Amino acid sequence: MTLSQLEVGEIGIVKEFTDLEMSVKLMEMGCLPGEEIRISRIAPLGDPIAIHVSGYQLSLRKFEASTIVLQ
Amino acid sequence: MKADIRVALVGNPNTGKSTLFNILTGLNQKIGNFPGVTVDKKTGFCQLPDGRTAEIIDLPGTYSIYPKSKDESVVFSVLADKAKGLTPDLIVVILDASNLKRNLLLYTQIADLKIPIVVALNMIDVSEKAGIDIDINLFAKKLGVQVVPISARKIKGIDQLKNAIAHTNKIALQQDTIDVEVIAPQIIAQIKDDLKIDNSYLALQLAHQHETLSYLSTEQSDRIEKLEHEFSFHSQKSQAAETIARYNFINDLLYDTVKKPETAHDETVSNKIDKILTHKMFGFVIFFAILMFIFQAIFSWSAYPMSLIEDLFIWLQKVISNILPAGPLVSLIVDGVLAGLSGVMVFIPQIAILFALISILEDTGYMSRVTFMMDKVMRKVGLNGKSVVPLIGGFACAVPSIMSTRNIENWKDRMITIMVTPLVACSARLPIYTLMIALVVPNRNVWWIFNLQGLALTAMYLLSIVSAVTVAFVMKFILKARERGYFIMELPVYRMPRWKNVGFTMYDRSKTFVLQAGKVIIAVSVILWVLKSYGPGDTFAKIDQKYHQPQYVKTMTLDSLTKVIASEKLESSYAGVFGHVIEPVIKPLGFDWKIGIALISSFAAREVFVGTMATIYSVEGDADKMQSVQEKMHEATNPNTGQPVFTLAVAFSLMMFYAFAMQCASTVAVVYRETKNWRWPAVQFAYMTALAYTASFIVYHWLK
Question: Which of B23, B281, B522, B567 stands 20 to 30 A from B73 (CA)?
């Protein structure tokens, strides 16, 4: 299951990444393995999404979210 | 001013870094460039409690010293490059106390570079309110640095921070955060050895960033490249390992020092606002309402100050022509330099208003929501959610808008944004549109409420957006991407705008605009003045002689005689000669040589058009006598056919030309400055001119 499959309000815990380049950028922003992520909202046109992670709100595209594998 | 100590401010975006900088330095600041890059370098001075003066450098906000954009790359190069003399003696790392975890990543990276550090724990009031309990003493002890809780917004803790800066040891005393050498032991050891560096983390960063660091010599960079292959160093894997190690350190630190309630208060308020502002339907409605408001404000609020500035220049021109003896020098100052300057200065109110409003939108956190909402649409046409900001700004002026593309990380997205921004109908096109529409479009209402002239103007604005988006879409297929596009962006908590910051931004941007655009415009207007005031050989003398003959002097009033002489001189001046030379080229668009002169003279700046038209149709004064220019142009007839010059077809053809043509030297200059390559402005100029010609041609022949 990846982050892009979650609905608004659902929570997941990061397990690993499928894309090294993206993972480096996501980890810098606090999306690390073991970290809890909650989907805050989805943009009006369905993409990107906003997530709550490491105590703040981060937005990322659905494609980017699909590289985050959840536990 | 000479400084005793150099202090750099480093921190994540949205942590109140600029606010702190403004408090520390007051108005005592200047903007320059970091050597070799066009990123603004803000410096200022601050008096320390012990009497010493500190020079404060505001470094661009960044989440990490691994740069993702042009701005961010400055941070590491300033900290690492000892040769340029910019390396700070001390770094103040600003951490958002309400969001410590992510903020601490940058701290741990900076700390490992072993430059003395003071931590400013900003927004301590916000975090206290949210119930976050930080054991500051333990926190400071674990890091081995002074930690000062402050609230930059409420101006609290600033004296303590200054004290801490004054009392910081010259030697870095902070604790190591992670074991850097474990990440890539061999290459670190070898780089330290080869480049005579004693800091392991600096060596590791050189391995990562050597390709983009301009201060390394080619040999050094090649050497590092060879070492990378030798030890099969993988930059991304190494960075991933490092980031995980750093967050482990941070989690341990926060576990011991910070107690957090289960849910934070602040976020729910922000969430409620977001539910409305990024709502499926209301989100866009509100966004367009705000856009409309910005347009209204730019045009209506600026009208009065703009006419004040115009009047000031007219007054100045009069004063100078009165006190100085008439001659070429006065003419150069008055008709060349002052006329050119007033063309620039008149836009200050619009620029200031636009930047004030944009900085309010950014400061409150709304702009990142716009980016969030628009990303999908923008991506379809080859742009990025972040392109929305420069495109909106383009309605006022392309120059500062192009400068604001720097925070677009992706190279291709940024280039396309830069290439299409000048197509957006900027404020300099407005006088031309108003003049042309007033000439040919009847001033009456259709469907009760819609004024026909207003509709024509709206159509021109819509056209500009459509053309920008279309060109972007085409460029999406032409430009090769250098790297993968991504969109990982913080959505900061909503906050009240900091009015002082808004004021500073207004002042900064207007100043930059005047200095940057001013230089070019003055130069070009001087050249144009020469071309307009002198003719080949003794043609001017002959014209003077001709009109001194009795049949003219006796039959015409002095006033109309001067006008006739002026217009005949213009026709035979170098500018007039050019006008005649290009006439065959522009004839298919419906333009005669007079419009040709206006086209040439408004190359530097579109707004020159109305003034040139005024001169050509021998009307005294310039744009301030719009009515009379309009009347003259209305009466102007083609001597060969006897038909009016400005027909519907000609007027719309002209508007099309101005809508698409790159007639703005300042934009050309700023595109060069931002892209560092003449090819970009050249291509932009070429494609826009081609579009302008085609559009004018089609419209002229369609309406003829």
Answer: B23
